């Protein structure tokens, strides 16, 4: 295994070293990006990483190059029989530079064992996932501030009543957030700044409304609001055009919010546990024939 890894490192560095001697002054990074993508689809992951690294060295904000390099690193590790979360940092870079396909890939590929609260962390900036479920917390630990690259946070089943706006401002990379089974009555506006958020679980809190700027979370696919005290949804929710799953069960809706009729890409909607006339449900089914509606 050591020899194999050494060979991989040499193969990764070789094209970069050669590039430093042969690169013309005004060469086009797109050429190396396309070569890297070609190697990626040919499953030549080492060569792909080399070409994509050259492209990145020429243009630091080339999100697509980070994206394919991240996927190449992940697949190379699986092919060689080892796991290394380094690929996640490339996908995070891709997100930052506007290549949003990275959000879904990070959600699918970046779900590995989460750090527990008691775990002594030498490099908190390297932590990507953390699980604080059922820790009887009434506030977020101070150590969170040092975990700047978090992508997955589970704070299920605690005693959280208030979330500081600083938490979201300091953790812009979160794609999966579980705040279920707490005592939240309201959410800070800064939550809506989470532009990469893919799955948000706010079930079983005490929410009566949501921030008006929810529509800013353009990557949101799964929104769980089960077991709150909601009776309306803001019209801005219509702009969540990537939303696939919406759970509004066990709330206080007496009528179907009009905005739901505008969620054309919705695949699953749970309205069970609300006092909604069956005629309204039938009308909604006709308007959204491709949506699985639970009531």
Query: How is the CATH topology of the largest domain named?
Result: Leucine-rich repeat, LRR (right-handed beta-alpha superhelix)
- Which whole number gives the mean pLDDT? 88
The termini sit apart by: 55 Å
Order of helices and strands: HHHHHHEEEHEEEEEHE
Read across the widest sheet, the strand sequence of neighbours is: 1-2-3-4-5-6-7-8-9
Structural class: alpha/beta
Discrete helix count:
8
Number of strands: 9
Helix content: 25-40%
Radius of gyration over alpha carbons? 22 Å
Specify the biggest β-sheet: 9 strands, parallel
Uncertain segments of ≥5 residues (pLDDT<50)?
A: 1-7, 17-22
* Overall domain count: 2
Give the oligomer, counting copies of the same chain as homo and different chains as hetero. Answer: single chain
CATH architecture of the largest domain: Alpha-Beta Horseshoe
Question: Summed up, what is this model?
Answer:
This is Leucine-rich repeat domain-containing protein. This protein has two domains: 108 residues, Tetratricopeptide repeat domain (Serine Threonine Protein Phosphatase 5, Tetratricopeptide repeat), CATH 1.25.40; 180 residues, Alpha-Beta Horseshoe (Leucine-rich repeat, LRR (right-handed beta-alpha superhelix)), CATH 3.80.10.10.
Write up this protein:
- It is built from eight helices and nine strands.
- The chain is 35% helix and 9% strand.
- α2 packs parallel to α4 and α4 packs antiparallel against α5 (86-96).
- A nine-stranded parallel sheet has the order 1-2-3-4-5-6-7-8-9, with no helix packed on it.
- The protein folds into two domains: 2-109, Tetratricopeptide repeat domain (Serine Threonine Protein Phosphatase 5, Tetratricopeptide repeat, Alpha Horseshoe), CATH 1.25.40; 115-294, Ribonuclease Inhibitor (Leucine-rich repeat, LRR (right-handed beta-alpha superhelix), Alpha-Beta Horseshoe).
- The protein starts with a helix and ends with a strand.
- Keywords: Leucine-rich repeat, Repeat, Signal.
- InterPro entries: Dev_Immune_Receptor (IPR050328), Leu-rich_rpt (IPR001611), Leu-rich_rpt_typical-subtyp (IPR003591), LRR_dom_sf (IPR032675), TPR-like_helical_dom_sf (IPR011990).
- Pfam families: LRR_8.
